[in-house]
Amino acid sequence: MKTLERFTTADAAEVYGVPSWAGGYFRIAESGLLEATPTQNGVSVPLVAILEELKKRDEALPVIIRFPQILESRVRGLNAAFNAAIAEYNYPGKYQGVFPIKVNQRRVVVETIAKAGRDLAHGIEAGSKAELALCLAQDLHPDALLCCNGFKDDGFVRLALWGRKLGKNVVITLEKFSELERVLRIAKELGVKPAVGVRFKLHAKGSGQWEDSGGDGAKFGLNATELLAVANRLKSLGLENSLVMLHCHVGSQLTDIRRIKVAVREAAQTYAELHALGVGIKYLNVGGGLAVDYDGSKTTFYASANYTLQEYAQDVVYSVLETCKGAELEPSAYPIIVSESGRAVTAHHAVLVLPVLDVTGPTRYPADLAKRDEDSHELIKDLEQILENINVKNYREMYNDAVDDKNQMHTLYDLGYLNLRDRARAEELFNRIMQRVLKVIEEADPKYVPEEFEDLPPLLADKYICNFSLFQSLPDHWAIDTLFPIVPLSRLEERPTKLGTIVDITCDSDGKIDKFIDLRDVKKAMPLHEFDPERPYYLGVFLVGAYQDVLGSDHNLFGKVNEVHVTALEDGGYDLDLFVRGQKARRLIEGMGYTSPQLFSSMRSQVDRSIAMKVIGTDEGESFLEHYDEEIVGYTYLE
Ligand SMILES: *Cc1c(COP(=O)(O)O)cnc(C)c1O
């Protein structure tokens, strides 16, 4: 690190990579505060100001801050990108987006997207009965698509066909061949002409973590024989115009634009084939997959993507155009291009705020241990000498000596030749030596840490204990290693002098974050500021609004966190539109089959027994029960 020069907010932007992943929605202000710019028109909202407002209202953290305006901007941006590409290439059809609701079913998310996309005829995609019930109730543009994906039973199909009867543009996507007869039977029963789409198994595969969603082994979809059979069956019934959509989806978070182009070409070719068969096909649905650049590296790394939103739209439109041209389709027969982008629409709108509660770690000592005394073991003297003598010429040797001493120390301790006091001294000295070695290396060349010392920084990292549950609030980091950008919300004009990892408050060793974004690699620790218990220190976790926002689990009975919805105002201020309270302990306990009256009465009879046996006094018993009651109706996180 450039330790001599003054640290500025521009340095902080580089350290935390903010401009690379923020999509223009977040930035670091001169004041050193992280702020949101949800409308991208210059109106900014410092995130700590929101937290101060919540504090005034006595609302507890952790909290998710949602910016509905970011969702609006994403929906409009997606449509604008496709419309620009259509204009640029003179594509004779149009674009109609669909929001796949499984990515985030929350009311504010769905209603904001529906509203922002209404005049653009942006639709929704449902994958289950419950999702469909929710989607049918949305008042969309009459042309907006309501796609029904997922495996279906009679009830699902009936709900979908009723939607069609009501005049909604409901399309039932066949995920497997046998669904066709179900649809035909129920359509006849209800006296409605169905609109079906077919999910086709492309042989092209995506790239990235969800590579296996495409290809021959995919879970969903029909193969070429089945596709032909569907077309022929519908034609034989005079329902050829019911086959309206060809659908494909080769996976989420597609990192490589070349693979997308290959898949879209195969899909467009198949569209042209269906058209030639004489069915009334009109939509080509290219599915989801539009990626989010979580680490800002613009590469094919799984946490990134080697293309922008605009490039995605251009490549999809161009690939469809070229394929249709090649297949000599009449311009009027070119498909309406549909995409089901979910991740890219929702990820940016939500920020999880973690208050740092405390810090532990190898570089923090409760108190200075007394100096070595006469009885101290020889080893302590040796370690002290190493610490004093490390320099740029001998640090490798000194490092190896210290490691040997440490191993020896543990052996001696196990055999009873070293007491606890000396063990504590030795451990502290060892950690100081490691810090010193690292410092010498960094002073010699801040850009290069020799390979054998690469693991040193994470080893010396402190643990920043934050008030949250990874399993509730960042399940995708736990389950599939999604890397979310993390940034302190203040002090960004100040050099972060510490390296830290993040641990949550669950009693589970997996409840930690020790993988962080980096432009070249994955970092094992991140730069943070020295923690001062007297000053609040908050970390913002960004891009958390897709998938995992609704996947959280109640591990350790930590429930859903508080939420606040924030809107930036034209004149510069902002509104806290809504505060959604997180779960109370009682809700979680009851979710496990208990009832609060039963718990309370069991507690009461045990207290009465203790009072009767004079273990506690009557007043003590009453105040305990009061406290018990308070905790049961309280927030599950630490206050
Ligand atoms: C999950 C899913 C999507 C959403 O994909 P994103 O990568 O989030 O845009 C779209 N379509 C289908 C069929 C899906 O299963």
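^ pyridoxal-5'-phosphate complex. The first strand starts at residue 26 and ends at 28. The first helix runs from residue 9 to 16.
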